[in-house]
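Notebook entry, structure prediction.
Reason for the run: the old model in the group folder had no record of what sequence produced it. Starting over properly, with the input documented here first.
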Amino acid sequence: MTITAILRQRAGHKRTFALAMPMILSNVTIPLLGLVDTAVIGHLSDAYFLGGVAVGAMIITFLFWMLGFLRMATTGLVAQGYGAGDALGQLRVLYQAAVMALILAAGLLLLQGPLLQLALALVGGSDAVQHYAALYFSIRIWSAPAALLNLAMLGYLLGRQSPRSAMWLLIVTNSINILLDLYFVVGLEWGVAGAAWASVLADYGALALALVLVWQQLTPELRRRETLAQLTLAGSGRLLALNRDIFIRTLCLQLCMAFVTAQGARLGDAVVAANSVLMNFTLLMAYALDGFAYSAEAEVGRASGARERAGIKSAVVLGGFWSALTALAFTLVFAVGGEGLIALLTDIDAVRDTAQTYLPWVVIYPLLAFTCFLLDGVYIGAAKGAAMRNTMLISALGFFALWWLASPWMGGNHALWLAFCGFIALRSLTLSGHFVWSWRRGHWAG
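New structure, fully documented this time:
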């Protein structure tokens, strides 16, 4: 399809933005929260405060995002139920995902001690960094029940093509988190503990709001006690299988991202702190691109449920067009204003200088990444977890191979960033190749 033909699809662009823009606006508040965390901690007296928060948040992020299948699988299956007109089936998926969320949260709380010790042993870092990482983790882990339930309910809202509800959930949650961050860390001078408590309280506030938003989605028929009594775990096999594949995919992704933080910690406090600053830039870009991925999830899921092959193609083409433009915009912003953004986040000279050294890797990152972000959404909407799993396994192997090969001649942190950029490029290539191959063989709805 030519650029001219794409531009003429006004109705398609309007629908893409109707789904994507609320999520883009709300998603931007998520890395902004990370930026505020980095800024308030980064202006404390020593780099180990920022390094400790970076490591502690990385461990929590690894655990929670590793269980991100609760959101993704729920979105895909609810979207297909939405396309097929099966309202009770959509609610049943949410119920099953919520039960799984509570079971998994209980497991995290029971195993928090061994998980923390294992993570710190793998990450390494100075004694000061490890101390503050443990402090942050020991507080944040108590948000697990709320955080995991929120994932399931966010997936339900997105699958039902209700991005405005999802938008308000994320905006309110992260706004509360940012305000409490400033109050606890700057106002009360609680330091690292203040940043952790702000996140915990925000997660439970989000849970209350999520319950209200989901209830508003239900018709009077679905709210009846007799209907709710029909919600059981029967037929959860498809959800479990999809969760398994997405779990493996997410585990590989988080291992690679955690490896960047862990190796940075082994290279010194200034390096791990600088990498934390730069990773916040990539997260800012990622959450913006995820708006179009979420749009693709909803549209591809709906079209798959309704057996509309043309709808799938339209979602991929239009989402790809806007994802590419967004990636180019971020590359230009990072190239022109990257040093200024670094200066806003920390006034520690060693961290600033180190971050500026590795900034060029972040400049090229959006152009390598936008394709895999979009296709993640496409495959989630189509509930094709096995393909996501297999392409991620290939990409993760490539990541570690690149790091191992480049380390002897590039130096530690340059090799780390080469491997990370190569990893994201491999994800784009493998997902694109699989999509083209499977599309030509008619493996999509039609």
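Summary: The mean pLDDT is 85.
The old model has been moved to the deprecated folder.
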